[in-house]
Amino acid sequence: MLPNNQIVAVENGLDGVMIWTPSQPGLNRVIGACGVPTECIAATPDRQALALGYRDGTSAIWNPITGEKIRELATHNSPCRAIAISSDGKWVATGDENAGAVILWDVTTGRQVRKLEVKQWVFALAFTVDGKRLSIGTTAGQILHLSTQSGKVDSILDAHSGSIVGLVYSPNGKILASCSRDRTVKLWDTATGHLRASLVGHRGDVRSVAFSPDGKTLASGSNDGTVRLWHVATARHLLTFAQSEGRVHNVCFSPDGSMLVAAIGGRGSVGRNCIWYANRDFLRAQLNPRRKTGNGILAVK
Questions:
Q1: Which among 106, 100, 16 is positioned nearest to 54, based on CA atoms?
Q2: Pick the residue with more confidence: 300 or 88?
Q3: Angle 57-95-253 (CA atoms, 0-180°, nearest 5)?
């Protein structure tokens, strides 16, 4: 949020969220500390607020510039594993682990608006561009589409053979990308619900997917330690960024699409956040947090 700088927000265990300024390391700071690990992260469209979900089931909205807590939301009965914010910034959705509940919150008031008992662990949430639907990824490999107006599930998609751990809509809202522990990425036509393409190539669980700002490229990060770039229109594999150790927990593009950021961690590996040029296969920078995991990232201009 500093002028002319790129900032990356990284989940950092008990320390809340680390705000990185790659060009000025001395300005790095921590916000959102609450004494328990951060499990998930999302940002409002204008990047003026961060929504964080915690292992104790709580969630909160923070100002990334001042570090002030804007709003605290009520508690789930188990860890908050997924969080999303609608494109108009009015709604926050949270999903938990053991209880299998998804809650829709009013950002302005902090009040619960809807609650859906999914009865499955929820690891992925995404709002449609118009905010009228919430897509929910489950451990059964299904995608549930919930109407934010009625609170009812209006369609169910049998999408994957493994747990769905990532969902994201394209900038124009025409494609929904899903990724799963079945090692695949799938592209869905939002108008028809039909499968457009299945992207195969990762050798481990696919943990995260992200569209470039122009919607032409999709990035996927996997437990196999690689980040792959795909051409959305043709489903063609474009490029692979590889790491010698660690799992890729999350990926995202910079707002101008020129850089790709990946949060990497895993068993026995030191957590780090790698920044690549999005159209070239060499590393631009590597940022090392203090802990061994980096579950989520956001590139914020």
A1: 16
A2: 88
A3: 105
Contact 160, 182 (CB under 8 A): yes
Instruction: Quickly tell me which residue has 């949060």 as its tokens.
Output: 263
Q: Phi/psi of residue 268, each to 5°?
A: 75, 0
44 pLDDT band, cuts 50/70/90, is confident
The residue type of 82 is A
- Both tokens assigned to 139: 């451990």
Task: Quickly list DSSP for 145-212.
Answer: EEETTT--EEEEEE--SS-EEEEEE-TTSSEEEEEETTSEEEEEETTT--EEEEEE--SS-EEEEEE-
Report the SS3 class of residue 22. Answer: coil
Residue 52 pairs with which residues in a beta bridge?
41, 60
**pLDDT, tens digit, 9 for 90 and up, residues 226-261:** 999 999 999 999 999 886 567 888 898 887 888 888
DSSP 8-class letter at 55: T
Q: H-helix or E-strand containing 246?
A: none
pTM higher than the cut 0.85: yes
Query: How far is the C-alpha of 5 from the C-alpha of 295, rounded, in Å?
Result: 23
Residue type, 26: G
* 47: three-class secondary structure by DSSP: coil
Alpha-carbon span 23 to 160, nearest angstrom: 40
Q: What is the pLDDT of residue 94?
A: 95
Closest C-alpha among 166, 174, 171 to residue 199:
166
Answer left, alpha or beta for residue 224, where phi above 0 means left and psi between -120 and 50 means alpha: alpha
Which of 271-280's residues contact partners 24+ apart within 8 Å by CB, and which partners?
Answer: 271/246, 272/246, 273/8, 273/10, 273/20, 273/297, 274/241, 274/243, 275/8, 275/22, 276/227, 276/241, 278/212, 278/217, 278/229, 278/253, 278/254, 279/239
